Amino acid sequence: MSNRPLASAGRLVPLLRAGLIAGIVIAGALYPLAAVTGLGAKATAHAGEQKADILRTALPAETSYVYAPDGRTVLTMFYEEYRRYTKLSDMSPNIQQAIVAAEDSRFYQHRGVDPKGAARAFVANSRSGGVSQGASTLTMQFVRMTLRDSAKTPKEVQEATQQTSLRKVKEMRMAMDVEKELTKEQILERYLNSAYFGHRAYGIYAAAQIFFSKTPATLTPVEAATLAGLVKSPSEYDPASSDQKDATGRRNYVLDRMAQLGYLSPDAANAAKAEPIRLKLTDPPNDCASLPATYQTWGFACDYLKNWWSAQPAFGENRLERMDKLRRGGYRIVLSIDPKIQAAAEKNVGAKENTGSPFANGIVVAEPGTGRIKAMAVNRNYSLDVSENGPSSNPEASPKVKANYPNTVAPLLGGGDLPGYQAGSTFKMFPMLAALNAGMPLSTAYDSPYRYRSEVYDGWAPSNASGAMTGRQTMWSGFGKSVNTYFVQLEEKVGADAAVRLAEQLGLRWRTDVDREQASPTKAKKWGAFTLGVSDATPLEMANAYAAIAADGRYCEAMPVQSISQRDGTPATYTTAGGIEREVAKPRCRQVVSADAARAATDAARCPTGDTPAKGSCGGWSTADSVRGTVGRPVAGKTGTTDSTRSAWFVGYTPELAAASFIADPDNPFNAVGDGQSQIPIAAVANTLRDGLKGQPTRQFTPPSDAIVG
């Protein structure tokens, strides 16, 4: 026997560094798999123990789908790697055979490591002085992909992919362990769902969609061979490039291998090789800016979904983990938006027509008793492209700062980090509700002068909007006419801090330094101006707060979804502080005020709309008396304007729906909308409630008890 080594040391080291296996080098020439079962096993036993569970259970990152309420219409997707897990039974045999032919023709004969293939690769690479053949089986490749995809740190990613002999030996050992745990069919299924095919296509479902706009079940031999050929080098063999020469050559190689293995007849392989590669490319949508044109106006609801998701502990300990789950967890998310109500909301705020104004007119509709959001619309285009937007209306902004119209992705309707807009007298609901819940009756009356000086609030002296409001008022007339001096006195009695705390229980949050300071325990008692709505709020918050009143005082957290399913089809769940497992998409409700207090507040809130309360008198006139006639059914609500009408609001509700609309300049809160536009939110809510409830039976509000009427 010749003593001449198979390869010189100078040539062997580069081969090992390129990822060929030190143990297999010996295996091919001296003793089969010694490096794996002997010294290699000793070096990798610990790693094998650590990774065994991962390889048995780990699933690759999968795309999350967002659906319209019908559960069928895909609105968009969220992904880092576009992938949809597909069972082997839902894949064409063509792709199964093509990938085996292309990557591991002895897949069904070996046990994770192929000694013959490794020896053949070693000899070929020794002769060529480089890497002309690989020795990785499909199982070894699956191990590598699984370790890469399950890596939690950059170091783990490097260890899973670095081209070293030690990594290769570990990979071999783990491949043999995997073959003891999984069947060949399970390994092939997971491999085909993990492999990268180029063009952001991870897994065979994405590859079939992106390159051929079809499912894996319908792939032809030509298409399957094209895709299988991509795994080796997705960029080099990309059939979507201008020159398909390399892609065609690689495809033909796979077809020949399929014929050699008996998967295709020689004639069928030759006929397939004669066909050109015919692509039907698809660019899968990703994130909220990719909604189809038909649903582009739903972008703000989609954006709210993202912000809501990022705040849910069920999906991780922090925002980063939660968004990673959204993009990798393979969830099936069905939005709560109602197409009929959304269409009504869009029409009534001019979401598609009136996008050229600095004044944003938006509306949010919530469902009492569930907190589910049924509509979110604003006169803006949800778009990342602000190149055609003009300069900001804020004089303090740089001339280079773009305005928020016509295009924006800012969360103008709530759910994000923006503070919102001063909501004016819509806040009068909170001290009134606090007073009613504390046992004060609707008939509570105060002499309400044009101007009132408050000793409780250190001499603060607000006035009414009109001298016609002067006189003795009750909750009905005070609310219907929006009498400031009545509500300051009512707030004095119940306590401004009680009103602030109640607003918090109804979902309001303080997002500016001033609001946070005023709402603090040390300041809230003196926050007399709270009842006049000097705090910022969002239409999302206000619609949901008033929805709680419509639901007899039962507050439900605002929620953008009607269902969330995990990749296995089961509902996504979380564990409560009490250890109870609950569905994430199930309404989260709690009783905030008594049902009688809420019904009494509703009775007073019928006065601003021109409706007739069940028990008392509205005092002859109101601030939005056209609403009842427009809606055509029992309706309650409240108007709100700020100093100099910088913003204007209306929040209205029926037993079925609550809606909040505003008009303001998001870029410059000092850019007053003016009295002439203060009716716009009133009309938006009234018309949306009318259109959204069209065809539904009329429901009545439950009257308050005589005890709380007084």
TrEMBL record:
Entry keyword Cell wall biogenesis/degradation: yes
Membrane-crossing residue ranges in chain numbering: 12-34
Presence of the UniProt keyword Cell membrane in the record: no
Family: In the C-terminal section; belongs to the transpeptidase family.
Catalysed reactions listed for this entry: Preferential cleavage: (Ac)2-L-Lys-D-Ala-|-D-Ala. Also transpeptidation of peptidyl-alanyl moieties that are N-acyl substituents of D-alanine; [GlcNAc-(1->4)-Mur2Ac(oyl-L-Ala-gamma-D-Glu-L-Lys-D-Ala-D-Ala)](n)-di-trans,octa-cis-undecaprenyl diphosphate + beta-D-GlcNAc-(1->4)-Mur2Ac(oyl-L-Ala-gamma-D-Glu-L-Lys-D-Ala-D-Ala)-di-trans,octa-cis-undecaprenyl diphosphate = [GlcNAc-(1->4)-Mur2Ac(oyl-L-Ala-gamma-D-Glu-L-Lys-D-Ala-D-Ala)](n+1)-di-trans,octa-cis-undecaprenyl diphosphate + di-trans,octa-cis-undecaprenyl diphosphate + H(+)
Residues in Glycosyl transferase family domain copies: 75-258
Family matches, as PANTHER family: BINDING PROTEIN TRANSPEPTIDASE, PUTATIVE-RELATED, PEPTIDOGLYCAN GLYCOSYLTRANSFERASE
Protein's GO biological process: cell wall organization; peptidoglycan biosynthetic process; proteolysis; regulation of cell shape
InterPro entries: Beta-lactam/transpept-like (IPR012338), Glyco_trans_51 (IPR001264), Glycosyltr_51/Transpeptidase (IPR050396), Lysozyme-like_dom_sf (IPR023346), PBP_transglycosylase (IPR036950), PCN-bd_Tpept (IPR001460)
Keywords per UniProt: Carboxypeptidase, Cell shape, Cell wall biogenesis/degradation, Glycosyltransferase, Hydrolase, Membrane, Multifunctional enzyme, Peptidoglycan synthesis, Protease, Transferase, Transmembrane, Transmembrane helix
GO MF annotations, alphabetized: penicillin binding; peptidoglycan glycosyltransferase activity; serine-type D-Ala-D-Ala carboxypeptidase activity
Organism lineage string: Bacteria, Bacillati, Actinomycetota, Actinomycetes, Micromonosporales
Penicillin-binding protein transpeptidase domain span: 363-667
Gene Ontology cellular-component terms listed: outer membrane-bounded periplasmic space
Pfam families: Transgly, Transpeptidase
SUPFAM superfamilies in the cross-refs: beta-lactamase/transpeptidase-like, Lysozyme-like
Protein's name according to its UniProt entry: Glycosyl transferase
